[in-house]
Each structure stands twice: as C-alpha cells, then as structure tokens.
Amino acid sequence: MSTAITKIENVAKKSKDYALANPKTILYAAAAVTVAAVGYKVYKKVFPAAPKRPELIEDSNLAKSTLTDVQAQNIAEKLFTAMATVGTDEKAIFSALSGLNANDFLKVYNAFGMRQYSLFWGNVGDPITSDKHHLITWLANELSVSDAKKLEQKIPGLKLT
Ligand SMILES: [Ca+2]
C-alpha cells in the first residue's frame, strides 16, 4: 500500500518537476490541444455530418412494387448518371421514374443508398467538402421547385418539397 502511494507521489512530483522545468513545453502542449479542439469545432461547423438516411415505409394504399432488385438498381444508376455532374438531366430523371408509384420509388431509394454529393456544386463532390446523401436529397437539390412538384404529382406519396 505505502509503496503504491509513494509511487503515485513520485509520479506526481515528477510531473510537477517536469512542468516547472519545461514551462514552455507544457504551454505549447496546452496550446496545441486548444487549437485542435477549436479546429475540430470549426471543421464540424463548416462540414456538418450528413443527416442519416430516413427509412421510407411502404404505402399500403398503393400497389405493391413489382420492380425486381435489378430493375430498382438500374433505375438508381440512371438517376445517378442524370444528376452526378454539374447540371441536371431532368428528362432522364423523369424518364427513369415514369410509371412508378411510391412503393417502387422506395425500392429505388433503397438501391440508391447514400452517395457522395456536393449540395453546392450538384455533382459527386469529394469526401472532404461534401457528404453522402440519399436519393431524396439528391433529387430535391437537382430539380427546380416546379419540377420537383411535377415529380411529386407523378409519384403519389413522394415528398421532395
Ligand atoms: Ca447535378
């Protein structure tokens, strides 16, 4: 017992001696920790974490989806291609989603998952200045408000605006 206490006292004394002997080092270390903490806060403010992908629920008032997983994946890729560069291929978006109901859309949404996207540039962005976003965020950001409303009318139950 007494040995352990002595050891702790020794460590404490050594730390104190070190601090007294190296005040600048301690100061630099404290400054570095502060800079890191502030830097992290600023970083999180500039690049906030992307919201999680909300889980869409099947609408029992609509027909069940008849899309296969492969079809849903294909539509997701078409949408990605229509939106992934700067600018938007609205025609391709409407064409890819034509004839779908919200339950079909749900499958496409799940197939799309979360993809790297710059809300500012409207392209795939990069992992430092952009985050991964789900299909509804992509569509809402790519389409004008009037086009988004048109799409909502074509796919009952879809909410983009
Ligand atoms: Ca785009």
Automatic annotation (TrEMBL):
Gene3D superfamilies: Annexin
InterPro entries, sorted: Annexin_sf (IPR037104)
Lineage: superkingdom: Bacteria
Record's protein name: Uncharacterized protein
